[in-house]
Write a structure and sequence with these properties.
The structure is a single chain. The protein is α/β, with parallel strands linked by helices. The protein has one domain: Dihydrofolate Reductase, subunit A (3-Layer(aba) Sandwich), CATH 3.40.430. It is built from six helices and eleven strands. The strands form two sheets. The protein has a nine-stranded mixed β-sheet with strand order 6-5-4-3-7-1-8-11-10, with helices on both faces. A hairpin with a 2-residue loop joins strand 10 and strand 11. The protein is globular. The termini are far apart.
Length: about 240
């Protein structure tokens, strides 16, 4: 099979891969952003805060790793690192490892994180001026890359500025995996171009993928344009372009 070929059961992702290729050819001002996460039928991504919980079936995990292999960078929030200690690598298919990115406004990144043992990439920590200088020095001494980015009105990393910084580093596509605050932040900022949401046939009543907005009108009405539904293993994949409702 050719390096860029995909298995028949993953061919439904071809519209996304075509979008990624077209975006790279255009030389856009910011990276293409794909939002991908798994949730239960009742919209939960975990049973409890700060507790790892696997939702997807094996086939959906295969899809996640294929998506990772087609993006330049893979982004999570610091809470995901603290809870799951992820590797953020491609392991279930052939392909390159994306650049691991962590949003960490106060630089709480743990120095024992598995990301520091990444096989071929140094994790890039996107933080703000609120990060203590000693934390920056320790993280860099352990092999992490640290980039200070302006903060938004709530003291978090300004996502649009962060994306522009990534463009300067040659990143043309970013896959956002979570957690909940990161998912909400990208959607509220209208920075998601395409979504691939795995819906798992379970009811767990836990942490919601999208928490209630901070104030009326905080979350813009959004829709999935040309929405498609694809059974995969025991799950259903909902995917399409994100647009205004």
């Amino acid at each position: 099979m050719e390096a860029n070929a995909i298995a028949d059961d993953m061919s439904f992702l071809q519209p996304l891969f075509d979008r990624l290729a077209a975006h790279a050819r255009r030389g856009a001002r910011r990276p293409f952003v794909t939002l991908s996460y798994a949730q239960s039928v009742d919209g939960s991504i975990a049973t409890q805060p700060s507790r790892p919980f696997a939702l997807s079936c094996d086939k959906s995990f295969d899809m996640t790793h294929l998506l990772r292999s087609r993006h330049d960078a893979l982004l999570v929030g610091i809470n995901t690192v603290l809870t799951d200690d992820p590797q953020l690598t491609v392991r279930r298919c052939e392909g390159r490892n994306p650049q691991p990115l962590v949003l960490d406004s106060r630089l709480r990144f743990p120095l024992h994180a598995r990301l520091l043992s990444h096989p071929d990439k140094q994790p890039l920590l996107l933080t703000t001026a609120a990060a203590p200088a000693e934390s920056i020095a320790r993280a860099e001494a352990c092999g992490a890359l640290v980039r200070i980015v302006p903060s938004d009105s709530l003291g978090r990393v300004d996502l649009l500025v962060a994306l522009h910084c990534l463009t300067e580093l040659g990143v043309e596509s970013v896959m956002v995996e979570g957690g909940a605050s990161v998912i909400g932040g990208f959607l509220r900022s209208r920075l998601v171009d395409y979504c691939v949401i795995t819906v798992v046939p379970r009811l767990i009543g836990g942490v919601k993928a999208l928490a209630a907005p901070c104030s009326p009108g905080d979350m813009p009405p959004l829709s999935i344009v040309d929405c498609r539904y694809q059974p995969l293993g025991g799950d259903v994949i909902v995917h399409g372009t994100i647009g205004q409702a």
